[in-house]
Write a structure and sequence with these properties.
Layout: H1 2-28, E1 77-80, E2 88-90, E3 100-102, E4 105-107, E5 119-121, E6 128-135, E7 150-154, E8 158-162, E9 197-204, E10 207-208, E11 214-216, E12 219-224, E13 227-234, E14 257-258, E15 266-274
Antiparallel strand pairs: 1-15, 2-5, 3-4, 4-15, 5-14, 6-9, 6-15, 7-8, 7-14, 9-12, 10-11, 12-13
This protein binds magnesium ion (MG).
């Protein structure tokens, strides 16, 4: 005990001294040199609105990302969280959506379960970012376009194809991630039947003048399971079957529609962000 006290008492002055030195060191520290938050004397960018590194340029709106890239960020509208289809109605008569909801997903009712038809969002959208997850039936029934066929229609008219494209010989412009009837995906990034897959999509709505003349086509960029399959690809027009698509529907906003093709395709975790693509101008 005596020895312990001796050690403690002899160590105490050293501790106090080192603490004083540390305090003095702190007070003697110089203020950090701050970097400028921007500049007001740099050249103007083309167009003359903002200078390079302009300090007066508005900073981007803050968005809190989801826990992972698959989770909805703070400014997203959640269209389906696995619990109900409150954001959706039947396309044909706007009655409540009749698709099956269970175990965190919604499933297209197949024949015999009371086939309702397409469902669509109650809300209308223009330019959007969409995250959607889907799984085609684990048990393969049928072939070609009869395998896990569904689809996502922007503005109710421009389809992004959903299909079981895993080792499935069907026409190229009808595969998963195709602009149906027009543009095949850059690559086939499909997972096996029954596995959950993701689409992360940027859709740009077509733009029209007051007289209904097309000013700008619709465009789409798609990541299928994280692999880019469409890059700023234009649409020929509203999707058709066995005909060439054309721009006959004059609209810049519309509902998001999901196709009932009589195959029990499943969807989950659907969220969407309305985009202002000129926000940084
Ligand atoms: Mg389809």
């Amino acid at each position: 005990m005596k020895r312990l006290s001796l050690i403690l008492f002899s160590a105490l002055p050293v501790l106090i001294l080192s603490s004083v030195i540390a305090q003095e060191g702190k007070s003697k520290q110089e203020a950090p040199v701050l970097s400028p938050t921007g500049y007001t004397d740099t050249p103007f960018l083309p167009g003359g609105k903002w200078r390079v590194h302009d300090d007066n340029r508005p900073r981007p709106e803050v968005v809190t990302p989801g826990k992972t890239a698959a989770d909805a960020p703070s400014d997203a509208i959640v269209l389906f969280d696995g619990k109900n289809l409150d954001e959706w109605v039947m396309e044909k008569d706007q009655s409540p959506a009749d698709w099956i909801v269970k175990d965190g997903y919604t499933e297209v009712p197949s024949k015999g379960q009371g086939v309702g038809g397409f469902i669509q969002t109650k809300r209308e959208f223009g330019d959007v970012q969409l995250h959607i997850e889907f799984a085609t039936p684990k048990v393969i029934e049928g072939n070609s376009q009869g395998r896990g066929n569904s689809g996502i229609f922007f503005l109710g008219s421009y389809e992004m194809q959903v299909l079981d494209s895993y080792e499935n010989k069907t026409y190229a412009d009808g595969q998963a991630s195709a602009l149906y009837g027009y543009k095949p995906p850059l690559v086939n990034a499909s997972r096996k039947p029954g596995e959950w897959q993701t689409y992360d999509i940027v859709f740009e709505a077509p733009k029209w003048d007051a007289d209904g003349n097309l000013l700008k086509r619709a465009y789409i960029t798609v990541f299928h399971n994280g692999v880019i399959t469409q890059y700023h690809q234009d649409y020929l027009g509203a999707t058709g079957h066995k005909r060439v698509a054309d721009y006959h529907t004059v609209r810049e906003r519309g509902p998001l529609k999901l196709q009932n093709h009589n195959n029990p395709v499943r969807y989950r975790n659907i969220w969407i962000r309305e985009l202002n693509l000129r926000a940084a101008d």
